[in-house]
């Protein structure tokens, strides 16, 4: 963690102080919710000049692979005449643009799809409108506002920004980890409150466990839409697929880790995604595929072949950029293993989505 000068207090900083003055503390989830809401409302945080870079910003190859995945699923469904491409938290619109451009190589597929974006930030909506002006996107505040119909849902680095509650073992008892404010030191600090919720597993002293009801509620919305209308969903995020203990709360500023409590609303705040919890939630009604590691998923889809094809027509500088992007997206030392991919399909659709099984590459029709 780099030492960086503390910025001026943000609107989130001041709002949290007011809430703590009223209630004595806020939960970690409330702290995250306030910080993230103000953060995304005030800035475009993506790319080299922002606080972090997502896979679509690293290379067009990422979005092209996802676009090919959508086309393959659409073909497996029998090429429905009407379908929706829905992205949750579409950022700058880069992924949606690359997916729609890829889809456009199949005129019938392009004609079938309407683009829907679930985005709350007015600033990011304006950016998305510019990037996606050729695809006539429709915006929504919530997923349940999207009209029913065959849907392909994309959520890339969406769940990591949703709030988590943290619970910590103190003297053999679970407590909820909360946050107070020390006016003398002008700083936030961690504290605990008694926990009276559903039983949590045995754990050693000082162990921390994270739960995200908001993430489960978001998954419920995805499950409901797919169960009623058919289609598929692809969730890509950094996280873990084996339950355990640990504090994964983190903040970033200018691509460097910062003190979580120092600058709420000014730094990007996230937590690792519990893919086990999401999988269990979805499996009640849907077929679940994965989670797979991002590197293997992209390789199964053919990203190595796409990189090779791009290199054939590239300058020396472009060649270097392609190789770096390929390494960053797929290497175990980069995003390849930390990032997981979860696929969801309606049981009655009998889709076998590409990428989760090396023996099932994209369909022959898709490869032409």
Name the features.
368 residues, alpha/beta, Rossmann fold, eight-stranded mixed beta sheet, five-stranded antiparallel beta sheet, 13 helices, 16 strands, 37% helix, 24% strand, disordered C terminus
Describe it for me?
With about 375 residues, this protein is an alpha/beta fold. The chain has a domain at about 10-165 and about 215-300 and about 335-350: 3-Layer(aba) Sandwich (Rossmann fold), CATH 3.40.50.150. It is built from 13 helices and 16 strands. The chain has helices at about 10-25, 30-40, 55-60, 60-75, 95-105, 105-110, 120-130, 215-230, 275-280, 295-300, 305-310, 315-330, 365; strands at about 25, 85-90, 115-120, 140, 150-155, 165-170, 175-180, 185-195, 210, 230-240, 250-255, 255-260, 270, 275, 285-295, 340-345. Strands 2, 3, 4, 5, 10, 14, 15 and 16 form an eight-stranded mixed β-sheet that branches. Strands 1, 6, 7, 8 and 9 form a five-stranded antiparallel β-sheet that branches. It has a three-stranded antiparallel β-sheet with strand order 12-11-13. Helix 7 (about 120-130) links the parallel strand 3 and strand 4 (about 140). Helix 4 packs across helix 5 (about 95-105). The termini are far apart.
Concise structural overview:
This protein is an alpha/beta fold and 368 residues long. 37% of the residues lie in helices and 24% in strands.
Which helices and strands appear, and what pairs or packs with what?
Elements: H1 11-23, E1 26-27, H2 28-42, H3 55-58, H4 60-76, E2 83-88, H5 94-103, H6 107-112, E3 113-118, H7 122-131, E4 138-140, E5 151-156, E6 165-170, E7 173-182, E8 187-194, E9 208-211, H8 213-229, E10 231-240, E11 250-253, E12 256-258, E13 268-270, E14 273-274, H9 275-282, E15 286-293, H10 294-301, H11 303-312, H12 316-330, E16 339-346, H13 364-367
Helix pairs in contact: 1-2, 4-5, 8-9, 11-12
């Amino acid at each position: 963690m780099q030492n960086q000068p503390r910025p001026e207090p943000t609107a989130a900083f001041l709002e949290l102080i007011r809430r703590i003055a009223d209630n004595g503390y806020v939960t970690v989830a409330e702290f995250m919710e306030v910080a993230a809401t103000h953060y995304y409302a005030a800035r475009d945080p993506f790319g080299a000049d922002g606080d972090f870079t997502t896979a679509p910003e690293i290379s067009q190859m990422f979005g092209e692979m996802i676009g090919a995945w959508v086309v393959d699923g659409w073909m497996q469904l029998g090429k429905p005449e009407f379908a929706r491409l829905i992205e949750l938290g579409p950022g700058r619109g880069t992924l949606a643009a690359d997916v729609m451009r890829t889809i456009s190589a199949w005129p019938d597929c392009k004609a079938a799809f309407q683009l829907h974006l679930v985005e709350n930030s007015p600033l990011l909506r304006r950016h998305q409108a510019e990037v996606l002006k050729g695809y006539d996107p429709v915006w929504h505040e919530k997923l349940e506002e999207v009209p029913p119909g065959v849907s392909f849902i994309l959520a890339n680095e969406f769940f990591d920004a949703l709030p988590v509650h943290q619970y910590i073992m103190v003297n053999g008892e679970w407590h909820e980890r909360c946050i107070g404010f020390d006016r003398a030191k002008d700083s936030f600090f961690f504290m605990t409150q008694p926990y009276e919720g559903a039983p949590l597993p045995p754990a050693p002293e000082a162990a921390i466990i994270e739960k995200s009801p908001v993430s489960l509620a978001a998954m419920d919305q995805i499950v409901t839409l797919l169960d009623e209308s058919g289609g598929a969903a692809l969730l890509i995020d950094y996280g873990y697929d084996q339950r355990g203990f640990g504090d994964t709360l983190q903040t970033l500023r200018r691509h460097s880790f910062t003190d979580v409590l120092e600058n709420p609303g000014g730094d990007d705040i996230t937590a690792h995604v519990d893919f086990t919890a999401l999988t269990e939630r979805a499996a009640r009604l849907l077929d679940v595929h994965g989670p797979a590691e991002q590197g293997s998923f992209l390789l199964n889809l053919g990203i190595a072949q796409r990189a090779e094809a791009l290199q054939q027509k590239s300058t020396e500088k472009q060649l270097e950029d392609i190789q770096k992007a390929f390494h960053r997206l797929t290497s175990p030392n980069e995003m390849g293993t930390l990032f997981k991919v979860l696929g969801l399909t309606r049981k009655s659709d009998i889709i076998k989505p590409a990428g989760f099984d090396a023996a099932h590459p994209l369909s022959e029709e898709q490869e032409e």
